[in-house]
């Protein structure tokens, strides 16, 4: 599935030709009610991810509902968004669903709510038992770097 018409117009040029990487819509899927990516979570972020040559890209406009200090998205929400980007990058790069083992976030600038953002993620190294990954969030209009993350993800047993 490529960038669809339900994607806000502002993101379309940045995702044109990229395939959306979706989690199954089944309520039995382990991530169905995930706050970050789950389609079944009533108030979640509903993070969307698109496969890109370098890894993944993820468009989002974080609602004002998730504001922390005035004018900035709450830090835990920023970390959640980055966690979803990194996990999706691992799925893209290895084909395996994973869980977060470690996540380190660097908050570079306040992340503004109600602003188009673009996340990027890529696998750094697949060690077999775990995968190292990195990502970043940028303000779409300016390319301004807002936050970065590094993580270590472990494949789900199954």
Describe the model.
- By secondary structure, the chain is α+β, with helices and mostly antiparallel strands.
- It has a single domain, classed as Hotdog Thioesterase (Thiol Ester Dehydrase, Chain A, Roll).
- 15% of the residues lie in helices and 35% in strands.
- It has two helices and seven strands, in the order αβββαββββ.
- Strands 1-2-3-5-6-7-4 form a seven-stranded antiparallel β-sheet, with helices on one face.
- The longest helix is centred in the middle third of the chain and has 20 residues, at 75-94.
- The protein is globular, with a radius of gyration of 15 Å.
- It starts with 11 loop residues before the first helix and ends with a strand.
The best one-word shape is globular
SS content category: alpha+beta
How are the strands of the largest sheet arranged? 1-2-3-5-6-7-4
Reading the helices and strands in chain order gives HEEEHEEEE
Main beta sheet strand tally, sense and closure: 7 strands, antiparallel
What is the count of structural domains? 1
Q: Bin the helical content.
A: 10-25%
In the CATH hierarchy, the architecture is Roll
The total count of strands amounts to: 7
CATH topology value = Thiol Ester Dehydrase, Chain A
Task: Report low-confidence residues grouped into runs of 5 or more.
Answer: none
Please tally the helical runs, counting DSSP H or I stretches of 4 or more residues.
2
Measured by DSSP, the beta-strand proportion falls in 25-35%
- CATH class descriptor: Alpha Beta
CATH superfamily annotation: Hotdog Thioesterase
- Computed over alpha carbons, the radius of gyration is 15 Å
Termini separation comes to 26 Å
Rounded average pLDDT: 92
């Amino acid at each position: 599935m490529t960038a669809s018409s339900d994607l806000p117009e502002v993101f379309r040029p940045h995702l044109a030709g990229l395939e959306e990487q979706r989690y199954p819509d089944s309520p039995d899927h382990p991530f169905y009610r995930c706050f970050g990516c789950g389609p079944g979570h009533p108030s979640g972020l509903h993070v969307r991810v698109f496969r890109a040559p370098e890894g993944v890209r993820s468009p989002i406009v974080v609602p004002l509902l998730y504001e922390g200090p005035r004018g900035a998205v709450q830090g835990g929400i920023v970390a959640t968004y980055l966690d979803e980007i990194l996990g999706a990058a691992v799925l893209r790069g290895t084909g395996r669903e994973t869980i977060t083992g470690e996540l380190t976030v660097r908050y570079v600038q306040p992340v503004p709510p109600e602003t188009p953002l673009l996340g990027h993620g890529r696998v750094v190294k697949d060690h077999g038992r775990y995968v190292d990954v990195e990502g970043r969030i940028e303000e779409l209009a300016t390319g301004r770097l807002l936050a970065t993350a590094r993580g270590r993800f472990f494949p789900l047993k199954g």
